[in-house]
Every structure is written in structure tokens, then in C-alpha cells.
Amino acid sequence: MVKLLMFDFDGTLVDSQNISVNIYNQLADKYHVRKIKSFDSIKRLPLHERFRTLNFPIYKLPLFAADFAKQYKHSLESIALVTGMREILIELKKKGYELAIVSSNSESNIRDFLGKKQLNVFETIINSHNILGKDKVIKKLLISKKLEPSEVIYIGDEIRDVSSCKKLDIKIIWANWGYDLLEMLQGEQPDYIAYFPEDILSIMDLQ
What DSSP letter does each residue of the chain carry, written as one string? Predict the structure, then answer.
């Protein structure tokens, strides 16, 4: 029986692609990395290929992420929930599911955004500092809440979300409106695909 639903934030819960690209490009000169000219072309590349194309060494990521989070906080007013997501989250809460967010974005940014939107449905918000290590954060969350993998479902929009969940034997719903393209997935496939937010409710009704 599923008790906990974990959501990614950027791309899954909120439409922040344009803002994120703008912030990245504002910071590109400071960190001596290439600017993003077309996100549509970048999103067709695996994550490591994106870093290579942008001449972005992984060792720069922690400082870049900290600067990014600061700039992101100033842009919260320009970021919107994915259409229909508020109603879906409220309905899932009414059905008795515990809701959590596991994201590479900062906890402060997420809490500020949810406060501005008066959306108080998430019991837990966790930042995954390691962009490639979300599985470790999810595992700690399961241990802290004494939950089995079968009692959890993750909703995310990136290939690394699928990889993290497969490592932990957790089912994942792919949010097909987000950052990564479904066609980029190779080998490991999501357990479910939501083409629209309301599909999440339909999928949960089958559990």
C-alpha cells in the first residue's frame, strides 16, 4: 500500500524552464562556461553530454548551484505551478497520502514559493545537494520514515529521477511535461507515464 508520494520540484511541480535558462546564462560568464543558446537541443542530450557541450566541469557545480539558488529566489514571482497541479496535490492530500518534495533546488526557495502560493500540503522538503546522488537522499528519507520501497512512489521529469528510483526499487511516475524527453530514456523505463497532471490521480487509483 502506497503511503508516501515524493515529487521533484522544477519541471514537475513548477514551470521554471525559461527562468532557469536565464539564470544559467547570467552566471555563465562568471564560471567560464558556455551559454545555453537552445534548451531544446540541450535537453536531447544525456546529462553528462550536456555538461560536456557547455564546457561545464562537474567540480564547479557546488558553487554554481549556490549562486543559482540565490538568483532563483529573486525570480520566484515569475514562476508558476504547472497548470492543474494545485488541485491534484490537494486531492492527493485528501485521499490520505503523505506528500514530500526531493529536489536539487534549495529547501528555502521551495518553501518560499509554496508560502507565496499558500500551498501547505507537503510534510517534508529535502534538498539533494548532489545532482547525481538523489537516490541517497531518497534512501535516507525512507529510513527516517520507516517505509519500504513498495510504500513509496516518486513523480519526476528527469532521467536521473528514473535511475535513482530504479536503484532503490521504487516505482516512478514520469511527468511528461517536464525538462527531459521521454525518448531519451534508454533501458530503464518509468513504471507509469503521466501526460497531464490529472493522470497522476488516475494512476494512484490503480494502486
Answer: ---EEEE-SBTTTEE-HHHHHHHHHHHHHHHT-PPPS-HHHHTTS-HHHHHHHTT--GGGHHHHHHHHHHHHHTTGGG-EEPTTHHHHHHHHHHTT-EEEEEESS-HHHHHHHHHHTT----SEEEE-SSTT-HHHHHHHHHHHHT--GGGEEEEE-SHHHHHHHHHHT-EEEEETTSSS-GGG--SS--SEEESSTHHHHHHHHT-
pLDDT tens across 169-191, in order?
Answer: 999 999 999 888 888 877 778 99
pLDDT in tens, 73-105: 999 999 999 999 999 999 999 999 999 999 989
pTM greater than 0.70: yes
Packing angle of the helix pair 61-73, 17-31 (nearest 10 deg): 130
Amino acid letter, 174? W
